[in-house]
Amino acid sequence: MRTGPGGKPPTSPSTSLRSSFAWTLAGNGIYAAAQWSILSLVAKLGGSEMLGQYALAVALTTPLVMLSHLNLRAVLATDLDGRHSFGDYVAVRLGVSGLGLVGIAILALLFGHSGSLAAVILAMGLAQTSETVSDIYYGAMQRRDEMELIARSMIARGLVSVSAFGFALYLLRDLVWALAAVAAVRLALLFAYDRPRGAAGECLARSGLGAGMALLRTAAPLGVMLLLVSLNTNLPRYAIERFLGGTELGAFAAVASFMTVGSTAVNALGQATTPRLARHYSRRESGHFLKLTFMLAASVCALGVAGVVVAALFGQTILGVVYRPEYAAYGGLLIAVMGAAIPGYVAIALGYAITAARVFDAQVPLFFIVAASCAGASWLLVPRFGLRGAALSLAIAASLQIGGEGWILARAMRRIEPTA
Predict the structure, then answer these.
(1) CB burial readout 117-147, b (16+ within 10 A) else e
(2) Torsion region of 358: left, alpha or beta (phi above 0 gives left; psi -120 to 50 gives alpha)
(3) Half-sphere exposure of 373 (CA within 13 A, CB side)
(4) CA distances from 146 to 7, 175, 241, 277 (A)
(5) Distance separating alpha carbons of residues 82 and 419, to the nearest angstrom
(6) Is the dihedral of CA 363, 340, 47, 52 positive or negative?
């Protein structure tokens, strides 16, 4: 069993930030394109009613999946001192993911207005949960700066997922079986690729229940934070379904999916810079830490502005081609959504910096406030302004999040500033 000096986790030779970003962007980009293709296939092969079902299932299951996710990958990737063995991380991941599936089953019973919708919710939960298990192996690879291995997995996962989904939906015209096919191929990739490569050289021994509970306490704030982040994204969708109906929810989900184009790059940048940010912070290199954080935030802001320009120039054409011609009527909504994405991207970037500093607890109250503001704005603005009110609600919440994250970062930097 291989370990680093002093029993620390194994490390590989450091790769350049440019190389890490390139591979991460490629992996995230192709995977996001595949997810986008799945949405397009639902719209083209299943119609607006099936698209509404799909969007509602995503909105209902994602918050619970994110809670059980615990962002263990970030905790593992920044655990440079080897405080917990990799085996403990895997044990916590499997245990909490199992509980998450039980919660999704309860959700299906409570919110499945029909048997078919309940089955869609269950299948969606299984497909999403299979990804969280792969994610813990990604954390081990990320800590070793093996971003190329993660990218290869994400590319394969995206391609096989959309292929399986499209094939099943085309043959059966049944959303449940299409989602079940996605879950099956993701699990196959987990056992064939992610597990052997992620666990290579890691300590697979488990330290017992006490160590697992200690790790769970460390990660719990991040799980709650991810739950709140997911709620913040989906609260406008709940308001749309409540006030405007499932068809409009499907249309909003289709248009809002274009935000993932930018968030793919944002997350690629964040994931590639997290190990370096963590090293700068642990070494008390405040200047390097702040410079890299500023570069990250400025880059994603510029990316968001570019998205608005593209939406204004080509939005109607893109919507008509990607989905159906009638979706071109939502060109104005696309501009509003991409405008709301700008503060959202900056908030994501600052979140990576805060996580790299391992400031977990302080993020929870912030995201409670952000989610509450998004809920209030959604219930006020969606009935009055329709789908554009939902986009405005996202922008308001993200702007509030940026302010809170700035305050958290300022406090974190004071901890590593040299004392007189």
Answers:
(1) bbbbbbbbbbbbbbbbbbbbbbbbbbbbbbb
(2) left
(3) 18
(4) 20, 35, 42, 16
(5) 28
(6) positive
403: CB partners within 8 A, 6+ apart: none
Tell whether the model's pLDDT for residue 3 goes beyond 70.
Answer: no
- Amino acid type, 311: A
Rounded to whole angstroms, how far apart are CA atoms 59 and 121?
10
Give the residue among 403, 420, 296, 410 at the shortest CA–CA distance from 352. 296
284, HSE (Cβ side, Cα atoms, 13 Å): 6
Instruction: Give per-residue pLDDT as tens, 145-181.
Output: 888 899 999 999 999 999 999 999 999 999 999 999 9
In this predicted structure, the answer to whether residue 220 has a pLDDT above a threshold of 60 is yes
CA distance linking residue 368 with residue 351, whole number of Å: 15
- pTM assigned to the model: 0.77
Which amino acid appears at position 346 of this protein? V
Q: Residue 2 pLDDT more than 70?
A: no
Distance CA 61, CA 7 (A): 39
pLDDT digits (tens, 9 = 90+) for 36-83: 899 899 988 988 889 989 999 999 999 999 888 888 888 888 787 778
Two tokens, residue 127: 């497909």
Tell me the residue type at 376. G
Domain range list for the chain:
5-415
Q: Which residue has the tokens 């929810």?
A: 249
Residue appearing with tokens 């993701």:
186
The answer to whether residue 4 scores a pLDDT higher than 50 is: no
* Both tokens assigned to 137: 């192996």
What's the token pair of residue 237? 């969708």
